[in-house]
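User: Design a sequence. Structure:
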């Protein structure tokens, strides 16, 4: 299968599995991501998802150029829509998604990582939006998410030049949360996922929703919504359990309701 999905306790692990093609994203792989997210989303035991790439060279080297070379404008627009749908699905997914970036994250691969909530980069990771090198521009959200995450000037430099940046430079601009040794990347990602999984699932889901809204403008409306969600938390079993556990000096046993 071009996309593998497994569960390790409360953590779902989605692996892009075309290492011979540097995990380049075909239509079949994009569909496979949706299928894996369906599995994770329907499993009440899954509280965090990790996305990574098979092999030691690439997280994802981008969209499969072979499938685009002779595309018409309408076919290219349709293919771009498939990439946009995956990005939107990741952003709206009700559990946090961590990208464990084990190598090249280029073009559509960088855009895939940008749609995740947290990005951990191996010291071997390389990021870039090289679309201008082949006469096109980012088409899966890169012109928007890269600006929001890494800033306008840095995003323009990467997009206009098509150059790659290494993991340290990416982290300096917020494109990666942090850089870790290559050999311990999945251990670090899993430890982070397991830490998040110990927190109140309902609260984490609502926090993801609200933080995603933070850059969309309308701050007062967002603040009002945050206040309402904070109040709504006090109708949940997780709030009662969390506060009881705090006073009992014991770990909480959250149920996500």
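Assistant: Done.
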């Amino acid at each position: 299968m071009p996309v593998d999905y497994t569960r390790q306790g409360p953590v779902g692990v989605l692996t892009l599995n075309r290492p011979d093609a540097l995990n380049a994203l075909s239509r079949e792989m994009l569909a496979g991501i949706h299928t894996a997210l369906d599995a994770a989303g329907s499993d009440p035991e899954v509280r965090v998802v990790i996305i990574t790439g098979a092999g030691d060279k690439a997280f994802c080297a981008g969209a499969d150029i072979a499938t685009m070379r002779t595309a018409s404008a309408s076919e290219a627009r349709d293919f771009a829509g498939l990439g946009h749908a995956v990005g939107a699905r990741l952003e709206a997914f009700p559990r946090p998604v961590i990208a464990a970036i084990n190598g090249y994250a280029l073009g559509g691969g960088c855009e895939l990582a940008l749609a995740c909530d947290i990005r951990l980069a191996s010291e071997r990771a390389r990021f870039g939006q090289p679309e201008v090198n082949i006469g096109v521009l980012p088409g899966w959200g890169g012109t928007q998410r890269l600006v929001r995450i890494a800033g306008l000037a840095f995003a323009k430099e990467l997009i206009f030049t098509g150059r790659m940046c290494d993991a340290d430079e990416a982290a300096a601009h917020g494109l990666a949360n942090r850089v870790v040794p290559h050999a311990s990347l999945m251990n670090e990602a899993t430890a982070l996922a397991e830490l998040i999984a110990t927190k109140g699932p309902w609260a984490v889901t609502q926090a993801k929703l609200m933080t995603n809204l933070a850059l969309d403008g309308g701050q007062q409306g967002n603040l009002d919504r945050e206040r309402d969600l904070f109040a709504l938390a006090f109708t949940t079993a997780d709030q009662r359990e969390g506060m009881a556990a705090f006073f009992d000096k014991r770990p909480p046993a959250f149920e996500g309701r």
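The chain has a mean pLDDT of 96. The chain has ten helices and ten strands.
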